[in-house]
UniProtKB/TrEMBL annotation:
<feature type="binding site">
    <location>
        <begin position="31"/>
        <end position="38"/>
    </location>
    <ligand>
        <name>ATP</name>
    </ligand>
</feature>
<keyword id="KW-0067">ATP-binding</keyword>
<protein>
    <recommendedName>
        <fullName>DNA 3'-5' helicase</fullName>
        <ecNumber>5.6.2.4</ecNumber>
    </recommendedName>
</protein>
<keyword id="KW-0378">Hydrolase</keyword>
<keyword id="KW-0347">Helicase</keyword>
<feature type="domain" description="UvrD-like helicase ATP-binding">
    <location>
        <begin position="10"/>
        <end position="244"/>
    </location>
</feature>
<keyword id="KW-0547">Nucleotide-binding</keyword>
<feature type="domain" description="UvrD-like helicase C-terminal">
    <location>
        <begin position="245"/>
        <end position="509"/>
    </location>
</feature>
<keyword id="KW-0413">Isomerase</keyword>
Length: 561
């Protein structure tokens, strides 16, 4: 446990400290990428509890993914010790689930209602056809609740019963929401019921990283925070601790035309004069682009380790790179295949993350089913998960006639590894475990320690950071994405630009942006131009790589905004 008291905020910079120690009342922290939002959020909770005698059980911290929630919990444990357990930490869905569990009767549900899994949903859809209310009825007959209803049902409950809403406001007097720029209408309405207009609501986010409007998120809620919550205090964090100066300058120049933050500033905390420029590679083809990635990965990792350079340090960081330090980001999942193939041919290990979910991983559903049916004899959930894994592996060792032998033993082993941390968190509570499995919508199966190059979509990369980032397919039509021949609408292009900004700002030390001159799209090979998003970036920030374009002398004169 870290030292509490004034020392608690020592590891924050001046503005982070202002945010962490702000008095009660509505608080909006507008913070760009890499400015230490999570650090500030956890320190604020710790400070309030340790210094201002706020009860941990009066605190509710909401994040967007289960992994982010686990990370928050972990850091709070470190700062506060065992009392951190009394802070409620979760996703919107898990908070909704908790409210629903505590009020199942009032919602017309049995206490042991279950959350519909994909198979339940598919069956209900077949039975109900296109009729949404019929669909819900089919689920209800089996005491099932749909994922969306984890938010809509609690919302209806709190709206209908003012005393109940007041009881929750009395319980969670301090609410913290990360990534507030991506809340949707139902989440917003729920927050408004949970927090009075002058309540202790602390919202953190970056409007320039709002990338989920296609899922109903609305950055407008962020922008009107001060109207919704009276006398809201505003704190801006401008110091970026993540990226080298050239990477940060390029990112800031890229977002400039669409920035939603007035007077956006991002100052580099890292000022290494030797920091490499942003590598730009103009590939002739998709295959050429993939080769470029392979070659460069090989140079960065292979080259360094073969020559076994001593681990010199840049900015206090080790320069020895491993595969796990490297990420390849792309706009659409279909771009992954040629790169995965090329890396695999070069014997470079890869792990791919997309929008698939933990429960969609091979073996996970079988283990969950086994757990549900087997009941529990072993002590503790992790042991039960292991046991269920064994049963599943044995059962499928001899393929069955119905084709369900498709789960391979190695998939089961991986699935057990993926499920164990969650099982550990859920202790003995099987229902909690199964419902978390369904509600933790994002994969989060990605293992940050795996010795492999990570491939992921730009959307999935949100919130993460890597020493080396390749942003591939930086082409007009792909980023911004649009159907050939169609005219993009302005808002959509602005969101795509924000996505580009999210991608650039994942990089810590080295960033490579590449585009191919020809690519197959919609079944036909087409000529491609580089994305216009590159146009607002000072050419002096790039180092042109490869033979397709003439090399230019390096210009180390950085023009920082
Ligand atoms: P994003 O918008 O991309 O989610 P973020 O604002 O959440 O970014 P973090 O991921 O919390 O940023 O922090 C970025 C990096 O900066 C982390 O590696 C973090 O440890 C480091 N960092 C944050 N604050 C400080 C500080 N005061 N001193 C040193 N390092 C810091
Ligand atoms: Mg973050």
């Amino acid at each position: 446990m870290e030292e509490v008291g004034t020392g608690l905020l020592d590891r924050l910079d001046a503005m982070q400290r202002v945010a962490a120690s702000a008095p009660g009342g509505p608080l909006l922290i507008v913070a760009g990428p890499g400015t230490g939002k999570t650090r500030t959020l956890t320190h604020r909770i710790a400070y309030l509890c340790a210094e201002l005698n706020v009860f941990p059980e009066h605190c509710l911290a909401i994040t967007f993914t289960r992994r982010a929630a686990e990370e928050l919990r972990h850091r709070l444990d470190g700062l506060l010790g065992p009392v951190a357990e009394d802070v409620t930490v979760g996703t919107f869905h898990s908070v909704g689930l908790q409210i629903l569990r505590e009020n199942a009767g009032a919602a017309g549900l049995p206490a042991d209602f279950r959350i519909a899994d994909d198979a339940d949903r598919a069956a209900a859809r077949v039975e109900a056809g296109d009729d949404r209310d019929a669909y819900v009825a089919v689920l209800r007959k089996q005491d099932l609740v749909d994922l969306d209803e984890l938010l809509t049902l609690p919302l209806a409950l709190l709206r209908a019963d003012r005393k109940l809403a007041q009881a929750y406001r009395d319980r969670w007097r301090w609410i913290f929401v990360d990534e507030y720029q991506d809340v949707d209408e139902v989440q917003y309405e729920l927050l408004r019921l949970l927090s009075p207009a002058d309540g202790n609501l602390c919202a953190i986010g970056d409007p320039d990283q709002a990338i989920y409007s296609f899922r109903g998120a609305d950055v407008g809620y962020f922008l009107r925070f001060s109207q919704d919550f009276t006398d809201a205090r505003l704190v801006r964090l401008n110091r970026n601790y993540r990226s080298s100066a050239p990477i940060l300058a390029a990112a800031v120049q890229a977002i400039a035309p669409s920035s939603l933050v007035r007077g956006r500033r991002l100052d580099p905390a890292r000022l290494d004069p030797e920091a490499p420029l942003v590598g730009r590679y103009a590939a002739g083809s998709v295959a050429d682009e993939a080769d470029f990635v392979v070659r460069t990965v090989d140079e960065l990792v292979g080259g360094l380790s073969h020559r076994s350079l001593d681990s010199g340090r840049i900015d206090g960081r080790s320069t020895t790179l491993s595969f796990s330090d490297i990420a390849v980001l792309y706009r659409t999942d279909s771009q992954a295949a040629p790169i995965v193939d090329a890396l695999a041919r070069a014997n470079i290990p890869v792990q791919k993350r997309s929008h698939d979910r933990l429960r969609d991983r091979p073996g996970v559903a079988a283990i969950a089913r086994e757990l549900r049916h087997a009941g529990g004899l072993a002590g503790g959930l992790p042991a039960r998960v292991r046991l269920a894994g064994q049963v599943v592996a044995e059962r499928f060792a001899t393929p069955t006639l119905d084709g369900s032998g498709a789960v391979r033993p190695e998939d089961v082993r991986v699935a057990v590894d993926l499920l164990t941390p969650l099982a550990r968190r859920c202790g003995d509570d099987l229902e909690l475990f199964l419902s978390q499995l369904v509600t933790g919508a994002e994969v989060d199966a990605l293992d940050p320690r795996a010795e492999a190059v990570t491939l992921l979509t730009l959307h999935a990369a949100k919130g993460l950071e890597f020493p080396v980032v390749f942003l591939v397919g930086a082409e007009d039509g792909l980023l911004p994405l649009r159907w050939p021949g169609s005219e993009p609408d302005e808002d959509a292009v602005a969101e795509e630009r924000r996505l580009f900004f999210v991608g650039l700002t994942r990089a810590q030390d080295r960033l490579y942006v590449s585009h191919a001159a020809r690519r197959i799209r919609q079944g036909a090979e087409r000529d491609c131009r580089p994305t216009p998003f590159l146009d607002t970036i000072d050419p002096g920030l790039f180092e042109r790589l490869g033979e397709s374009e003439p090399r230019r002398p390096k210009d180390r004169q950085l023009r920082l905004i």
